[in-house]
Amino acid sequence: MNSEETLLAMDFDDTIIDGDSSEAAIELAPEGELPKELQSIRPQVEHATFMGAVFGYLRQQGITAHQILAKVRMLKFAPGMQEVFFDIYNSEQEAIIISDANSVFIDSILQHKNLNNVIPKYNVYTNPACVNPHSHQIRIQPYECQRQCDLCPPNLCKGQILMRHISKRRANNLKTFHIVYVGDGVNDYCPCMRLGSNDIIFCRKKFALEQLLQCELAKPEEEKRLYAEVRFYTDAFAIRDRMRIDNVFFPARTMTPPTVPSSTTTPCNPSEDSKCEEEEEEEEETTSSSSSDAKGKKAPSKDLGKAGKGGKDGKKSSIDAGKPRKGSTGKGKDKRGSTGKGKGKK
Ligand SMILES: [Mg+2]
Ligand SMILES: [Zn+2]
């Protein structure tokens, strides 16, 4: 291939799936609502800590991890996303997921769609979680504890994760990366602002990121800190089409990804190094599956069936692909490459 490789970086909730997995879990609370105490801590703590409290509460209410995962697995893929996954698989395109959900949800959902073989677990950056086989409660830990980025919560800076991934890959030989970033939310703003003019942002229409990026785009030239090309999209067919035009997705074959055996995903194996402490008491929060692993053997919770559930936005329509890149397969180094730069404060 060329001296430049493409990296496809994607958010998960409301981007890969049509809906928010954490919100889906919260809906299981009695009457669909969390108690006041929990609601009140939400704005004060980062998402992983909040969800840890939610899982504890749900378990007290008699709701098991098994039930939560069954609910979360009902979330559908966003329109066109399954096709994007097929193309990632068929073109062997490198892709990563960066998400403030958690490893158990992501793994469980991808597995349920038979797509857990497309993006390797070590390319899924998220809050590590596991299912405690004894208490049947989901445990979750913050992905990190960062203070460098004031745009992001302490538990997860998507921009830094993206940049770290790129440096790691560069250290392994690849010279230049052309980044295609796909997201919808406020926490996707940070990585977007770190991209260069050779990169592309696919921003899902009608979600929070759209407005943030529109504000950036409206700034006068001298104040602009958003360098990447921005494509607002309604359905992910636009992403697939653009990637095909750019020759990133070259459909060399058209197979559906093989199913990977289930049960290697959610349960904690207490004897592994990164694991859930399986004290009966509910408080020790050591977790398994650092963003990348999530092994485990015994599967206390087995897959439940599927079902349908709509997501928010969903019509498929416009292919918003746009002009072919200057140098589709590569090239186009320029002013800023695809790295660093331009963190903004809000
Ligand atoms: Mg999202
Ligand atoms: Zn950040």
UniProtKB/TrEMBL annotation:
Comp. bias intervals (Low complexity): 254-271
Segments of this protein annotated with the region Disordered: 252-346
Keyword Glycosyltransferase: no
Domain of life per record: Eukaryota
Pfam families in UniProt: Put_Phosphatase
Family under the similarity heading: Belongs to the HAD-like hydrolase superfamily. PHOSPHO family.
GO molecular function, one term: metal ion binding
Name of protein: Uncharacterized protein
Bias kind Acidic residues: ranges: 275-286
Compositional bias of kind Basic and acidic residues: 294-318
Entry keywords, A to Z: Hydrolase, Magnesium, Metal-binding
Cofactors (names): Mg(2+)
InterPro entries on file: HAD-like_sf (IPR036412), HAD_hydro_PyrdxlP_Pase-like (IPR006384), HAD_sf (IPR023214), Pase_PHOSPHO-typ (IPR016965)
Keyword Isomerase assigned: no
